[in-house]
Each structure stands twice: as structure tokens, then as C-alpha cells.
TrEMBL record:
This is Cyclin-Q. Residues 37-121, 152-237 form the Cyclin-like domain. The lineage of its organism: Eukaryota, Metazoa, Ecdysozoa, Arthropoda, Hexapoda. Pfam families: Cyclin_N (PF00134). It comes from Anopheles braziliensis. One of its GO terms (molecular function) is cyclin-dependent protein serine/threonine kinase regulator activity. SUPFAM superfamilies: Cyclin-like. Belongs to the cyclin family. Cyclin-like FAM58 subfamily. Keywords: Cyclin, Kinase, Transferase. GO terms for biological process: regulation of transcription by RNA polymerase II. The keyword Transferase applies.
Length: 257
């Protein structure tokens, strides 16, 4: 994919796609990208912190990297990962809330699930699934989140631009949005966290035509990321950016009627 096409796709994603979320009927639609979208929709309704939903998504991708997708209910695994992540990140989300939000998201327009056999069946399934997910992940819930690297890089860029100018630019929130959205793809597991973080920032700068200070007269003003990630090659840099953009293409496919 040509660089111009990648940047144009990113610009459309940043300015248009993110504001056009179509409500999906998870009961009647079938698409491999639906369960992870369901996970993030539930996380948003539960007011989870970005790190919590990112951890849940990472656990979800790690789990299905180890098993056959057809052997397990991905929606129940998504619920399980949400609850496990909330405990790891000490995000105050009750299992009951996870169950009710998941139920109402799948069954659009339904009432809150009463303390019925169906409710307790979901409760027991999540309990059993937590043990299953834990075993598949070898009980290793630690994740090297790209968020901490991004925050560090943003602080450095803020010092270069100046606090006032940096705050006025949309680069930071757009980069953060790219990062969170990239967690919808299992490809986020393929790269070091620091590389993912800096590529989200580079992409946001490219989208808005932002030139980093002191690079205007350099031979290549778009490889300033080398200061943060000297080991990130140009080819891998563009591979990551293409993978980020592919998330929005997948979203568009899901939303097609």
C-alpha cells in the first residue's frame, strides 16, 4: 500500500469513521470481528478505564491465539476477560454488572436480567471460564501496555512544541484513539509495546500534517521516532501503521448491511 493511501485512510478513520458507530445485532450477525467489538461496547457501557479494556482485549486475543475459535463461545470469553481485567486493574466493576450489560447488549431492548436460572448459569459459566482463561494464559496477566510509552513520548513532544501549542493540537487524543482501536486486532500482540505507541503518534502527526520541531530541515522529517525507538525499522514502522488502519477497514465491513 502506498504511503499516501495509508495516510488518507488514516485521515478518514480519524475524522469520520470513529463517529459513525452502527448498532450491531450480535444475535443475527456473524463475523469474526464481532466478539471483540462486543467486548469494547460492553467496556464502554461499564465505564471501564482504557487500560482495563485494553487488558481485557489483550487477554481475549492471547486466549484465542492458543485455542480453536470454534471450541469456545467468544462472547462468554469476552465477558470473562472483562471481569478478570477489572480485578487485575482494580477497576470497580461487579460481575453482576458485567452479566447485565452483556445480556442487554446481546438482547437489544431487553430488561435487566432477573436472578433467574439464566442469570446464575451465566454467573457459573464466567467463574469456570476465568479458570480456563487463566490456565491458557499460564496465569500470567501482566501486560507491557503501550499506553505508558505513549505517555512518555507525549511528554517529550509537549516539551518540544510547548505546552500551549501541544494542548491545542489534536495529535494526542487521536494517537490515543488509534492505540485503543488497535486493541481490536490480534495483531497488536505481534509488536513491542514501545513500537506500537510511537507508531500511533507518528500516524496522528501524519494525519494532521504536524511537523515535529527541529526536524524541518532534516533529510527525512518523518523518522523522528528513531529518538524514542532506535530499533524500529522503517519497514516495521509502516507494517504497524498498515495494521492499525486495517482495523477501520474491518469495522466498515462489519457495519455493512
Amino acid at each position: 500500500m502506498m504511503r499516501e493511501a495509508i495516510i488518507n485512510a488514516a485521515r478518514e478513520a480519524a475524522l469520520v469513521t470513529r463517529h459513525k458507530k452502527v448498532q450491531i445485532d450480535y444475535k443475527t450477525r456473524s463475523h469474526k470481528g464481532l466478539p471483540i467489538r462486543f467486548l469494547f461496547e460492553c467496556a464502554q457501557k461499564l465505564n471501564m478505564k482504557p487500560l482495563t479494556s485494553a487488558l481485557a482485549a489483550t487477554m481475549f486475543h492471547r486466549f484465542f491465539k492458543e485455542v480453536c475459535t470454534n471450541e469456545y463461545d467468544p462472547y462468554m470469553i469476552a465477558c470473562t476477560c472483562l471481569h478478570m481485567a477489572s480485578k487485575v486493574k482494580e477497576d470497580k466493576v461487579r460481575k453482576r454488572d458485567v452479566i447485565n450489560v452483556a445480556y442487554s447488549t446481546i438482547n437489544r431492548g431487553s430488561e435487566v436480567l432477573e436472578l433467574s436460572d439464566e442469570y446464575w448459569a451465566m454467573w457459573d459459566t464466567i467463574v469456570q471460564s476465568e479458570l480456563l482463561v487463566g490456565r491458557m494464559l499460564k496465569f500470567d496477566m501482566t501486560v507491557d501496555h503501550p499506553h505508558k510509552y505513549m505517555l512518555h513520548y507525549m511528554r517529550s513532544l509537549r516539551d518540544l512544541f510547548g505546552a500551549k501549542e501541544w494542548a491545542a493540537m489534536p495529535v494526542a487524543p487521536t494517537a490515543a484513539a488509534f492505540l485503543q482501536d488497535f486493541h481490536m486486532s490480534p495483531k497488536i500482540l505481534d509488536y513491542p509495546a514501545s513500537h506500537v505507541a510511537v507508531c500511533c503518534l507518528v500516524l496522528a502527526c501524519e494525519v494532521y500534517g504536524t511537523v515535529v520541531p527541529l526536524t524541518e530541515h532534516a533529510d527525512s522529517s518523518d523518522n523522528w521516532y528513531k529518538v524514542f525507538c532506535p530499533d524500529l525499522t522503517r519497514d516495521v514502522h509502516w507494517d504497524i501503521i498498515e495494521d492499525i488502519i486495517s482495523v477501520y477497514g474491518a469495522e466498515a465491513t462489519i457495519e455493512e448491511k
